[in-house]
Amino acid sequence: MRLSSIKMRLIASVLLVEVASALCGTGLALIYERHVRFHAFNIMLRGRADSLLGAVQDAEDARDNVMLDGTEATLPHRDLYEVWDDNLHILGHSPGWTIPAEARRPTAKSFEEINVDGRRYRTIRINGMRIVDPGNIGGGIPRRVTIVYGSPTGPVWEAIREAVAFYGLMSLFLVILTGLCMFWLLRRGLAPLDELAAQAANVSVTSWHFEPSDRIREITELAPLASALETVLQRLERSFNQQRQFVSDATHELKTAVAVVKSSLQLLTVRTRTPSEYQDGLARCLTDCERMEEIVAKMLTLARVEGTQMADVVSTGGSANLAKVVKTVVSQLASFAELRGVVVLVSVPESPMVRGGGEELELLCSNLLMNALQHTKSGGAVHVTAGSSGEWCELRIEDEGSGIEQEILPYIFDRFYRSDPSRSRHTGGTGLGLAISKAIVLKFHGTIEIKSKPGEGTMVIVRRPLDLSPIGQPNAGKIPALIQEWRE
After folding, report:
1. Whether residue 470 has pLDDT greater than 60
2. What is the DSSP string of 108-139?
3. Best CA proximity match to 216, nearest among 197, 242, 237, 235
4. What is the pLDDT of residues 351-370, one digit of tens each?
5. Of 395, 407, 408, 440, which shows the fewest CB atoms inside 10 Å?
6. Residue 447: burial class (beta carbons within 10 Å; 0-12, 13-18, 19+)
7. How many other C-beta atoms lie within 10 A of the C-beta of residue 148?
């Protein structure tokens, strides 16, 4: 079964490690207990065999043989033993057990494992010597004695099993106790994460409130996540609000345009009119339809530009020569400026390349220059200047119009916003030109600023990053920070 919970995965992983450690510990305990207890068991066998050797005494017969003095009867009744001399004469053995004759031959093995009546015994064989009549001339008569002594290993293995069982049960108890403690500690430790998830789950299209608690912000691992979620949700909220406002404004604009066309057509049907009146009415309808077409086209342009923006990645949409683009736009609008009676003064030196596509840069310059021409009275002038400083290129378009009120400046880049409502019919303005210009500038991480005073004209300042170094070098890395500061 796959565990979908990180908490349960952590608990299962730690418990598996602990179980493996417990098994290894139990195995090592088994090896250790076996070594220690059998070492003690061998010492016990040697001690009992030595005590049995001490029971071999002079038989006081004519042949100077040796015998057991009877103290061997005090040995444990479950132990086995047999004693013989160098003539293979049996001096004594435990009741009911003797070693086969062929097994009494000399052997190099000190310890052996044997099976007697279905019971396992461990035996030790020692060779000793007893001196008969040590007071006689020559120091007495030496007699060699061989002793085989064995004891059952069942009690030893029982003690080993009990010790290992104790270690195993203790390890199992510790694993269970550790698992419960881990579950409680992880549940308590991950509570801020659950709290963060609960707060994020409450966010919806109608409710964008998301404010992580101080406890979450103080946690090193959760603070970046909370900050990222908060930033993303703020951007999403701003984007949703912009889209909602855009749809609302677009609907209002198109509804107004459709109502104008409808009213013009209805006016033509009120009574019979002359052909020239019908032509004039249809011409007005055509003009309104062209304005609707312009609104839709600019809405699509704005959507396309904003749709390709990347908030935190410097755009790599190519580069363009600003001087060449400005001269092209001025040439295109020369006839319009002549009709308005406005002079366009250009001072744009051959500057380095700026980041951005040529078509979008041309659209930006066209919108700003057209806006300046529309607001400049006949006989006035529009100044277009450019220059570069450090990593930036700056374009300035200044007109000699009536200027903009200070309370209007914060809303000048809003969609469909017009300080002069009459422009919709007289100049064909849609209120999307500056919004499109701002979107183009932001797409390539530039800045746009409007300075204006009533009666003194308006200046639009556009700053675009120069195409001096590849994306990702230190120079380019400063641009997003400047843009973020300008946006805030």
Report:
1. no
2. S-SEEEEEETTEEEEEEEEEEEEEESTTSTTS
3. 197
4. 667 877 777 888 888 888 88
5. 407
6. buried
7. 22
Nearest Cα to Cα of residue 171 among 58, 74, 26 = 26
Does the pTM exceed 0.85? no
Q: What is the pLDDT of residues 302-326, one digit of tens each?
A: 777 766 654 333 444 567 888 888 8
H-run or E-run covering 164: helix 154-189
* Cα–Cα distance list, 102 to 79, 91, 124 (Å): 21, 17, 17
What contacts 250, CB < 8 A, 6 or more positions away? Answer: 295, 299, 415, 416
Residue written as token pair 């935190």: 312
Residue 120 has pLDDT above 80, yes or no: yes
CB atoms within 10 A of CB 92: 18
Q: Both tokens of residue 390?
A: 């450090």
Tokens of 37: 């207890």
Contact yes or no for 151/78 (Cβ under 8 A): yes
Stretch (H or E) spanning 268: helix 222-269
Q: Which residue, among 41, 109, 114, has the nearest Cα to 81 in the 3D structure? A: 114
pLDDT digits (tens, 9 = 90+) for 170-205: 988 988 898 888 888 888 888 888 888 888 888 887
d(CA 424, CA 326): 27
| Whole-angstrom distance, CA of residue 481 vs CA of residue 465 | 13
Residue 143 CB neighbour total at 10 angstroms: 20
In the chain, the largest separation of any two C-alpha atoms, in whole Å, equals: 172
The candidate with the shortest Cα–Cα distance to 454, out of 478, 419, 415, 427, is: 419
- Coil vs helix vs strand at 62: coil
Query: Minimal CA–CA distance to 257: which of 214, 232, 307, 293?
Result: 293
